[in-house]
Amino acid sequence: MFPFRPSASRRSTPAFPQKMLDTVFEHVLLDDVPHPDTPLPDDVLPTCEMAEIKDGYNLCWQLLEHGVDRKAFRRLILKIALSGKASEEEQLAFKYARAKFKHMRFACANFTRHHRYPILLHLITIVMGNMQDAFKNHQRRATLTNGLILWVALSPAYYWLIAAPIALWKEDNTAGIIAYQKKENAKLAKLIRKLDSTTGHEFHVMRKIISRRVAFNDTLRTIRPSQKLNQLSEYLATINGLMGDFHDGLIEKKLEGTQDYRRDRFQSPEEIPQRLQAFLKRCPR
Q1: Which parts pass through the membrane (predicted)?
Q2: Measuring CA to CA, which residue among 114, 174, 7 is closest to residue 106?
Q3: SS3 68
Q4: Residue range 208-227, pLDDT digits in tens
């Protein structure tokens, strides 16, 4: 068994007030709530000062470290895993904890020089999603299997392996972040051309690009409050919500065995490419 190494999973950073942690989490919970009447602002690729980049990443780290009681979360995971079901209150608690892990995963891609997810954080977040889908769809065996994996992985003996890269990775600079976002925009533009005949997997890849951008902007508007940033988040959240609702249907068809997630092709709702194209047209190249 690996020894627990707390020094490898900590960051030396000033503590943010609880109000800021609450604010960014409120934004996270609204990252897929549609605002169909919110106009797209002129500046859709906002730049950050180096101090804002550091603060943004540290804010996400503190939201996870101080916002998730891992002991309580492990107890909840084990209870759901063994019983195969979760009350509405338990589902909400699980959702909130998973949302903080997801936001940290996005922060690693958005703010660090690596611009990718740490592999173990990524895998554990996927397992959380699989467990959530399993207990929501009353899949007893999958709930138990994924729950036991999570219960072990989040134990002190192993959690430092997940936390160490988060604590040790360094933030990128302004130019690096803009370059990363432009690269993501190029991927998005390429994928949009397939929306008249796409697969569930391709659709999901596109949605993740939007989800990362919403997360970036939600963190930035917590650090630097602005009406324009609020507008941008609401516009992106509308796309994220439309894509999320449609993707939920794809997952149901996958679980029912009525549609192959990676092979069967379909046409996405018309409003999604329209909004994506409007966003990309306004992005500087």
Answers
A1: 148-169
A2: 114
A3: coil
A4: 999 999 999 999 999 999 99
